[in-house]
Design brief:
mainly beta; 62% strand; 8-stranded antiparallel β-barrel; Porin
Length: 283
């Protein structure tokens, strides 16, 4: 009898274990591990932006010593000491749709890297105009067709006229640095600094002792400079920018005379005030 009771209890215990529901552990949602975010594929990451700008400028120049020399097909080698030059804005042509390149203009194409340093690189074409003022009194020193001169002289266009007006062109490659000053979603203001250098591909009009020469566009020398400015990005894709650029221009290869044998050489500094409009193309 006792054996029968023990056997019955064992059977009931096994049956209860077979039909019992498994206990599901309760997971604390706070303590649960957060699934890791999958890395962004390289092809989906931002790759910076390309930008283009167009603008206009006013210019101011330092005085310079200008040497005129042709001892091959003519006989002169003289220097203007501390000659003064001015720009030639020609803004009266600004409003003509087919004359946008007549005033002193600036054109820039650049790439801004997508990184925390806000660095970029750009190529700029600065079309300045440089005119040695006619009818100014300049100290002239040197030899002119067998005659030595060393005195203050009224320089008229019949004696010498020199202008880089098509123009005093700076073709520069610049390193660009942006520093965000204020950012509100669709409007951003940044400080912009640039430093760069490159060749001058200029076009000169000159008259020396009655011998006239115009052009052509060719390599005249080297320019280096830097600028600071402010840039306002609007709606992400458009911007307005203003800059003050200082540059050092070294003219070493300016043609003189209709046979292009003579040369004019001079060095001067320039200050540009630039106003520009542009657009960004995010990549």
């Amino acid at each position: 009898m006792r054996f029968f009771l023990l056997l019955s209890g064992l059977a009931l215990g096994l049956a209860g274990a077979a039909f019992a529901q498994p206990i599901v552990p309760v997971i604390d949602p706070i303590a649960a591990p957060v699934p890791s975010t999958a890395p962004i594929p390289p092809e989906l990451k931002p790759h910076g932006s390309i930008y283009f700008s167009w603008g206009y400028n006013r210019d101011w120049y330092s005085r310079s010593d200008i040497r005129f020399k042709n001892t091959t097909t003519d006989n002169y080698d003289f220097t203007f000491l501390h000659a003064h030059a001015s720009d030639k804005p020609d803004f009266k042509d600004f409003w003509r749709f087919n004359s946008w390149t007549i005033p002193q203009y600036d054109m820039t194409l650049g790439y801004l890297f997508h990184d925390k340093h806000n660095l970029g690189i750009e190529v700029s074409w600065n079309h300045l105009k440089y005119v040695v003022d006619d009818n100014q009194v300049i100290h002239v020193q040197g030899n002119i067709r067998g005659h030595y001169i060393d005195k203050d002289t009224l320089v008229t266009p019949d004696f010498v006229h020199l202008q880089h007006t098509n123009g005093n062109n700076y073709l520069m490659v610049n390193l660009v640095k942006h520093q965000v000053l204020w950012d509100r979603h669709l409007f951003k203001v940044s400080a912009v600094g640039k430093v760069g250098a490159g060749p001058m591909i200029s076009y000169t009009i000159s008259t020396v002792l009655g011998n006239h020469q115009e052009g052509p566009f060719h390599y005249h020398g080297f320019v280096a400079g830097g600028s600071v400015g402010l840039k306002a990005d609007v709606l992400r894709y458009f911007f307005l920018q203003t800059d003050i650029q200082g540059a050092f221009a070294d003219y070493t290869n300016t043609y003189l005379g209709d046979d292009r044998v003579g040369r004019a050489t001079h060095v001067f500094g320039s200050i540009q005030a630039i106003w520009a409009f542009g657009f960004n193309v995010p990549l």
